[in-house]
Design goal:
Blueprint: H1 21-39, H2 42-45, H3 52-56, E1 60-65, H4 71-78, E2 91-93, H5 112-120, E3 125-131, H6 139-147, E4 155-160, H7 167-184, E5 193-195, H8 209-224, H9 226-258, H10 265-274, H11 276-287, H12 297-304, H13 317-343, H14 386-393, E6 402-404, H15 405-412, H16 419-429, E7 436-438, H17 439-453
Parallel strand pairs: 1-2, 1-3, 3-4, 4-5
Antiparallel strand pairs: 6-7
Helix pairs in contact: 1-9, 1-13, 5-6, 9-13, 14-17, 16-17
């Protein structure tokens, strides 16, 4: 554990001393940022106060999308049932389908965008799912994406069900999606879009298989690395919150300063709300604050209409100085701790379930070349080379249609593969576990040898499409 041992008599500008990043963030928030938030009613305008769990929780992934875009199926790749070891590393949050068409006219009874904004501040990754087969961005979905402002670095986009359309149409859909997102997500960097078909069924149109596999593996690695980057994410989120809290304090104190003591309060309140844009500009120039740090103007005006300006506080330099000290000194120390903790967590990734024992991720099981070849074929993929393998099989003197392990080994060692690899191939090929190989199992063994010699990894378990036809249930 990394620590800076506390000493009595710490100088005013000397950084706080913490044992872990999470512990440091929690203490800094409670001691330096929370007093500023409470004084200027930050929680009534922007976000509820953070709790201890917000600093110590496991990484979270938030899935957002319209109905039938595949959110639930996407989750089933990683944790189809409870308890699931995947959930020991990350939390996955499903959301109600975004409404579109006539449905979006029906009120939910709560502020859906505000709820997602609350989650966005606390999660590590936000995945927006779109259906390539019926791409559209409804008004509610557009509102939700805009509510994720200042969290664009967490957003990843998935263009799902891409196997349902031809390559040329897919190019058009991808271009249309990027154009639509560009109008909503206002960032200098292009948002990362993953193209694929995120379910376990065979591809309907397999032309873009290699593209889908590469995209799916990239997204898998992105999710798998979340635990290693969790501390940095929490640190960045606290910095964003502190900057917004400072701006909010300047806004509230400016409104307080302009209010009369006795008469004309209501008229002045309306005037100040209408002229809030001018107040923003004045604060921006006086305090040298970036325009991007200011809260949404329209939303701020709506909330101010319900507020009692007489309860607002004037500027309190000590509270602002404490936050400035946190940003200038304490955060720098925590940044060093983040790097140190990450260096000790190089092996900390999402584990269990579909993430266990694979480098390809939960999305590509059975797909691709090597052992995944032939998953989309109606015929058994081994069958095309079986006549050649049969010729060898019948030279090994089978008894009752089967050969012994000793006979099979004489042929298998010609591959010059290590005995450990050949042993694994034998276990995979001996499907009925009787200690012998029939003609289909022998052909399968030779197919797996070819897979390994071509540089592909062997599967931990035999994929369903490689099981010999005579050994399949119901056949």
């Amino acid at each position: 554990m990394f620590s800076w041992v506390s000493k009595d008599g710490r100088r005013k500008n000397e950084p706080e001393l913490f044992e872990t990043v999470a512990d440091g963030l929690r203490k800094l928030y409670n001691q330096k940022l929370l007093p500023l938030e409470e004084t200027y009613r930050f929680h009534d305008f922007h976000s509820p106060a953070l709790e201890d769990a917000d600093f110590h929780n496991k990484p979270m992934v938030l899935l957002v999308g319209q109905y039938s875009t595949g959110k639930t199926t996407f989750i089933r790749f990683m944790c189809a049932q409870l308890p699931n070891p995947v959930l020991e590393s990350i939390s996955i949050i499903d959301t109600p389908g975004i409404l579109s068409g006539e449905k979006q006219r029906i009120s939910r009874g709560y502020d859906f965008a505000a709820v997602l904004e609350w989650f966005a501040e606390r999660v590590d990754r936000i995945i927006l799912l779109f259906d390539a087969h019926k791409l559209d961005i409804s008004d509610e979905f557009s509102e939700v994406i805009k509510a994720l402002k200042n969290h664009e670095d967490k957003i990843r986009v998935v263009l799902n069900k891409a196997d349902q359309i031809e390559t040329q149409q897919l190019m058009r859909v991808y271009g249309a999606l990027m154009w639509s997102l560009g109008k909503i997500i206002n960032t200098p960097e292009v948002v990362r879009v993953y193209i694929g078909s995120f379910w376990s069924h065979p591809l309907l149109i397999p032309d873009n298989r290699k593209l889908f596999e590469a995209e799916e593996q990239d997204l898998f690695k992105d999710i798998q690395s979340l635990p290693r980057n969790a501390a940095l994410r929490k640190l960045n989120d606290l910095i964003k919150r502190a900057r917004l809290a400072k701006v909010h304090a300047y806004i509230i104190s400016a409104l307080k300063k302009e209010m009369p003591n006795v008469f004309g309060k209501e008229n002045k309140k309306k005037e100040l709300i209408n002229n809030l844009a001018e107040i923003y500009l004045k604060i921006e120039k006086e305090q040298q604050i970036s325009p991007g740090d200011f809260p949404n103007l329209k939303k701020m005006q709506e909330i101010l209409m319900t507020q009692d300006f007489s309860r607002f506080q004037s500027i309190k330099p000590k509270l602002l100085d404490a936050v400035d000290d946190m940003l200038a000194s304490d955060i720098a120390k925590l940044m060093v701790m983040v790097r140190q903790e990450e260096s000790q967590m190089t092996t900390q990734v999402v584990k269990g379930g579909a993430f266990e024992g694979t480098t390809n991720g939960p999305f590509g099981h059975g797909y691709g070349e090597g052992a995944g070849e032939g998953i989309d074929d109606v015929e058994w993929v081994v069958g095309k080379d079986k006549p050649t393998y049969d010729e060898i099989f019948y030279t090994l003197s089978p008894v009752n249609g089967k050969i012994t392990g000793a006979s099979a080994k004489k042929e298998m060692v010609k591959s010059k593969l290590p005995n450990t690899v050949l042993g694994k191939i034998w276990k995979l090929a001996d499907v009925d576990r009787d200690g012998f190989l029939d003609d289909e199992e022998f052909a399968l063994a030779n197919h797996l040898i070819k897979v390994k010699l071509e540089g592909h990894e062997l599967p931990a378990d035999l994929p369903p499409h490689l099981i010999p036809p005579s050994k399949r249930r119901g056949e």
